[in-house]
Write a structure and sequence with these properties.
There is one protein chain. With 774 residues, this protein is an alpha/beta fold. Helices cover 33% and strands 15% of the residues. It contains 28 helices and 30 strands. The strands form eight sheets. Strands 2-1-15-14-13-3-4 form a seven-stranded mixed beta sheet. Strands 20, 25, 26, 27, 28, 29 and 30 form a seven-stranded mixed beta sheet that branches. A hairpin with a 3-residue loop joins strand 26 and strand 27. Helix 2 packs parallel to helix 4 and helix 8 packs across helix 27. The radius of gyration is 25 Å and the shape is globular. 57% of the residues are buried.
């Protein structure tokens, strides 16, 4: 079958009638105009543009791109597909995010002559930098040099090993992003760090859903999504909190389309009425592709940080209206009386002020929840990236427990992941605070792990990435080994990151393409670049773990290979053996299958991963649902309501709460300068029409957003955002985020707890973003 015939075949398959796999209720097969976004067809064709853009962008390597799409496991968000199919719908699946990421896997090698001028590279910006191509060889730049020179792998690993041996383990730091990273790389990475003698190892899951891990473990005894995607289709109610899945996990829009056709109600709790969560076009279904779909029944526009107050009020209303699942609460939970007593001690006036919505709205939401026999709660980083991130999660779980929405079909709690690597990254133990399997870092667990690995494992909790920046800024880091990521782009207070980098001895950046942090001047010694293989290039294949706990095998895809790029796990193990030659027999894997075999032994819940070897192989640990039959893996076998710390919300006069959102991007990789969902540019400051009029501003006016941490120059545009709050794009808004504010347990940076003042710019003012805290 030639490529054109294959494309036509896929198009026909995409447009066939939907066939959900074991849904809660079967969607209607007939078209439903009541759900249409518009009676005029093709009001939105962005999805089709993306298909043609992908064809054009990958035209020099189209056969390889086609094989990746057909046989690889998606390296985009964490919904997970094998090829273009999944375990929720029988239709094909391919989304804009995957199409945009495809080019990272098909790029040719960059011309290393470009790397000889680091200053010129630094001026390009991330998008242009990535487009230059893949990193093909190890490259070294010493302090005082203008750029990078090619060196051998032997030289490169010799430099790293020498620097680490010359210092103490506590002065080293290891970070791994979630950039398409498989479980095997994560596991080898953290094992290397612990063999070196440190728990200073962390990954991108820290700044995503670490509060969800703490919150679910404390209440239910589990630390992952409790249900499956198929539980969304035909359940009575799906609630999205601080999550814009239509933009960040677009495949879920397809599930929601069929859920709506099965009678599911959808509620969204968010300060901004996200356009794509209201009206959406699913390109692989003819009805939705033509006329669009109304995804949401009702929006509740809470104030930023008002979630605890909102859910506390809803829980109180649920109890007052007699809508609790009293038998479940009585027989299968603990601590309800403590939580409801605390809720009733807070006045409605305070709950309204702190949540930003009225008592009547909290009651309306409580009635939606109380009327539903089954419901799924889905949340994103709008919940977790607060200093009260754990409390936000507790408050959601409390409400779900009040109705028994866990451990049964069509019910669940889902912290939806934004990247294919983060679920597995945390569970593989690439965490400063957790060993493999989520075990706490302490001396007892370290001894157990030492017995399994054959060498001593440190039992002291390591540094999180934000803490490492603080320590490095004081001269406390000699070696930073960063796989992927870009600290300068994603961490709060970018100028402080620059200052920290200036004090680090050796920085190692292991990645597939260049990033802006690679071209920051070397600190005390040097910067080393290492070329990484993608997941599709790894002999023996690899695995990823999805939001629904499904471990999926992704085979090696035949195609071109880039220079001397190597699988990361091989490099980690070789480096560990160079640093700790006395333990070399314990620091070697024959292949990725050997890594999976060890994972199955060290992480019991991953049993079955050792059998995954062929395309399509998968295992969903815990089965379709966790806590089935209301059996909870807690000390007393019950789910626990959890008290929340309620802090009344007080906003200084003439100030706004500022929330960052994503546009046309994948994590911090910005794909377009204009957001197709809103039509707004990256420098937009989104404001309510009420606030805009009060300040005498008009759409497009230049403004300055400023607080004690930094300054951002942008332009105001009005949209349906809650008065008193502003929306702007991430990571541009990081100049306004405190580098010190974090949640107490997960230590996640408080990206969403920004308060700033809005004013017109002065004539002599620079338009460059400024950080005041460096």
């Amino acid at each position: 079958m030639n490529r054109f015939t294959a494309i036509l075949s896929l198009a026909r398959e995409a447009l066939r009638s939907p066939r959900p796999i074991d849904p809660v209720r079967t969607p209607a097969k007939h078209w439903q105009p009541s759900l249409w976004a518009s009676w005029l067809p093709l009001r939105q064709i962005e999805n089709f543009r993306e298909i043609f853009r992908a064809l054009h962008e990958n035209r020099d390597n189209l056969d390889y791109a086609w094989r990746i799409l057909n046989h690889g496991v998606c390296d985009g968000c964490s919904l997970g597909t094998t090829g273009m199919h999944d375990w929720t719908m029988e239709n094909i699946h391919v989304c804009n995010v995957r199409l945009r990421l495809l080019r990272l896997n098909t790029l040719p090698a960059l011309d290393i002559e470009r790397l000889k001028d680091a200053g010129a590279m630094a001026k390009l910006g991330g998008k242009k930098m990535r487009a230059l191509g893949r990193l093909p060889y190890p490259m070294l730049r010493r302090r005082g040099e203008a750029g990078f020179q090619r060196i051998s792998w032997d030289q490169a690993l010799g430099i790293v090993a020498e620097k680490i041996r010359a210092t103490t383990p506590d002065r080293t730091y290891f970070y791994m992003t979630s950039r398409g990273e498989p479980n095997e790389n994560y596991y080898a990475f953290q094992k290397m760090a612990r063999a070196i003698g440190t728990n200073n190892v962390d990954n991108a899951a820290r700044i995503c859903h670490s509060p969800s891990t703490f919150g679910l473990k404390a209440t239910l005894g589990v630390a992952a999504t409790t249900c499956s995607y198929k539980d969304l289709i035909g359940t009575d109610l799906v609630v999205f909190v601080g999550s814009n899945v239509a933009n960040n996990q677009p495949m879920m829009s397809k599930y929601l389309f069929y859920a709506r056709k099965a009678g599911t109600k959808v509620a969204v709790i968010n300060p901004f009425r996200e356009p794509a969560m209201e009206l959406n076009w699913v390109p692989s279904d003819l009805e939705s592709a033509l006329f669009g779909t109304r995804l949401t029944d009702r929006f509740f526009q809470v104030r930023p940080g008002g979630d605890v107050a909102f859910f506390t009020g809803a829980l109180r209303k649920l109890a007052d209206l007699g809508l609790m699942n009293e038998s479940f609460v009585r027989e299968h939970t603990a601590d309800y009386d403590k939580v409801i007593t605390a809720a009733r001690a807070i006045s409605w006036a305070e709950l309204e002020r702190s949540s930003g919505v009225s008592e009547a709205e909290m009651e309306a939401f409580a009635r939606m929840v109380g009327k539903a026999e089954r419901a799924v709660f889905v949340w994103g980083m709008g919940i977790t990236q607060h200093a009260c991130g754990e409390d936000n999660v507790y408050s959601i779980v409390n409400l779900a427990l009040a109705r028994g929405f866990v451990g049964r079909e069509g019910c669940g709690l889902m912290p939806v992941r934004g990247h294919s690597g983060v679920q597995g990254g945390a569970e593989m133990g690439a965490y400063a605070t957790a060993f493999p399997g989520g075990l706490a870092v302490n001396e007892d667990n370290a001894r157990k792990l030492s017995g399994q690995w054959g060498f001593p494992v440190p039992g002291k909790v390591g540094l999180t990435t934000a803490e490492m920046i603080e320590v490095s800024d004081r001269g406390g880091t000699d070696v930073l080994f960063a796989t992927g990521g870009d600290f300068h782009e994603v961490l709060p207070d970018p100028d402080r990151v620059l200052s920290a980098f200036s004090h680090i001895g050796l920085r190692v950046h292991f990645d597939i393409v260049p990033s802006s942090q690679m071209f920051i001047e070397p600190g005390k010694d040097a910067v080393l670049l290492l070329p990484a293989a993608t997941r599709y290039e790894m002999p023996g294949g690899v695995t990823e773990t999805t939001t629904e706990r499904r471990i999926i095998f992704s085979p090696e895809i035949p195609g071109p290979r880039i220079g001397e790029a190597r699988p990361e796990w091989e490099v980690y193990m070789e480096l560990a053996r160079r640093i700790r030659p006395e333990w070399q027999e314990h620091l070697a894997f024959a292949d990725t299958a050997a890594i999976r075999a060890e994972i199955a032994q060290v992480v019991p819940m991953y049993a079955g991963i050792e059998k995954l070897a062929q395309e399509g192989d998968n295992v969903q640990y815990g089965g379709r649902m966790l806590c089935a039959g209301w059996k909870f893996p807690t000390a007393d076998g019950k789910a626990h309501f959890h008290p929340t710390t309620f802090v009344p919300m007080q906003l200084p006069e003439d100030s706004f709460q500022v929330v960052q959102r994503r546009g046309k991007q994948f994590n911090s990789n910005v794909h377009e300068e204009r957001d197709p969902a809103t039509g707004l540019p990256r420098d937009a400051v989104i404001i309510s029409s009420t606030d805009c009029g009060r300040l005498g501003l008009h759409d497009g006016d230049a403004v300055v957003l400023e607080n004690e941490y930094g300054r951002f120059n942008g332009r105001v545009f009005t949209a349906d955002v809650r008065p008193g709050s502003l929306e702007m794009y991430w990571p541009e808004g990081n100049v306004l985020v405190s580098g010190n504010a974090r949640s107490p347990l997960a230590k996640i940076p408080a990206y969403r707890d920004v308060i700033a003042q809005l004013r017109r710019p002065r004539p002599d003012e620079s338009k460059k973003p400024v950080s005041h805290a460096a």
